[in-house]
Amino acid sequence: MDKAWTRWQDWAEVVLGVVVLLTPTVADTTTGAMWTMIVLGALIAIDGLVSLAAPAVVYGEWFQIVLGALLFISPWVIGYSDLTGAAWTSWVAGVLTAAAGAVALPAANAAHSGLAGQH
């Protein structure tokens, strides 16, 4: 079973969330883009911290995949695909966030299965 605070995928999620959260301080954004990146970045980082603290929580990895997908489509949905820095950060971080969640799913499932046998 995975130990808490050791899974690299969840550390990557925390870093990606912080990068997205801080991007509006260095890239041109609209109000909508700024708040989208702040909220999604914070949610991604928080989900990463929760997954680090409780590696057997499988729903956290699914939530990570959903957040990555939302971040990826947000430049088109919110209308900031013409803002290069913000849009590319959203696209790249969105794909990496979803990929990290998908890669972490088997480990989370194994940790969860290990806990299920202890009841």
Break the fold down into its secondary structure elements and pairings:
Blueprint: H1 8-22, H2 31-53, H3 58-79, H4 84-116
Helix pairs in contact: 1-2, 1-4, 2-3, 3-4
What portion of residues is helical?
over 70%
Radius of gyration: 15 Å
Uncertain runs? none
H/I helix tally: 4
Q: Structural class, from secondary structure content? A: mainly alpha
| H/E element sequence | HHHH
Per DSSP E runs of 2 or more residues, the count of β-strands stands at: 0
What overall form do the CA principal axes indicate? elongated
Q: Mean pLDDT across all residues, rounded?
A: 91
> Main beta sheet: strand number and arrangement?
none
Q: What is the distance, rounded to the nearest whole angstrom, between the alpha carbons of the first and last residues?
A: 15 Å
Domain tally: 1
